[in-house]
Amino acid sequence: MAQSVDQSALRTNQAFIIGLLVLAFIADWVGLVAGVAAVMAVGTIWPEVGLFKIIYKRLLKDRFVAPDVIADNPQPHRFSQGFGAVVLGVALVLFAVATPVAGWIVVGVVVALAALNLFLGFCAGCYLYYRLARANVSGFKAVPLGDGPLGMRPRQSS
């Protein structure tokens, strides 16, 4: 069965992650980092109730953001989001053990990777997923669709 992914939903998700984590840094608000991590974790485990996806579907889609549905595997994107939630969890542990500089650096890595995907279309988590699938790691089964390098989805022209 052919699978598809709405790239606009992914970009909306990335924009929320970047915006909220930058706001958390500016306001020195670790609770917001925890909130973003929780939204990412829930969206990974149960995609249909992910807050950023709900905002996209109910408020933004077709009104402000045109859908950009392409043939793609959703599994690597979910893996990437889940991995980002785990990395933010590491940042929260660093904050809890009184190493805020290290915590904000880890948060910055998540922001940088989300920005890399949002602005350049390279999903580092997808790349990792496909490398694990290529290495026959159990649970990583999807193979890349299309001709782009692993994790790189060509942008569709509007």
Features:
6 helices; 4% strand; two-stranded antiparallel sheet; mainly alpha; 158 residues
Describe the model:
There is one protein chain. A two-stranded antiparallel sheet has the order 1-2. The protein has one domain. It is globular. It contains six helices and two strands. With 158 residues, it is mainly α. The mean pLDDT is 91.
What does the secondary structure layout of this molecule look like, with pairings?
Layout: E1 4-6, H1 7-27, H2 30-45, H3 51-60, E2 69-71, H4 74-96, H5 100-120, H6 124-134
Helix pairs in contact: 1-2, 1-3, 1-5, 2-4, 4-5, 4-6
Q: Kindly, what is the distance between the CA atoms of the first and last residues, rounded to a whole number of angstroms?
A: 26 Å
Rough outline: globular
- Main beta sheet, described? 2 strands, antiparallel
Query: Helices and strands: which structural class?
Result: mainly alpha
Strand element count: 2
% residues in beta strands: under 5%
Individual helix count? 6
- As laid out across the biggest beta sheet, the strand order is 1-2
Give the integer mean of the pLDDT values: 91
The proportion of residues forming helix, as a percent range, comes to 55-70%
Q: Which residues form runs of ≥5 with pLDDT under 50? A: none
* Count of distinct structural domains: 1
Radius of gyration: 16 Å
Order of helices and strands: EHHHEHHH
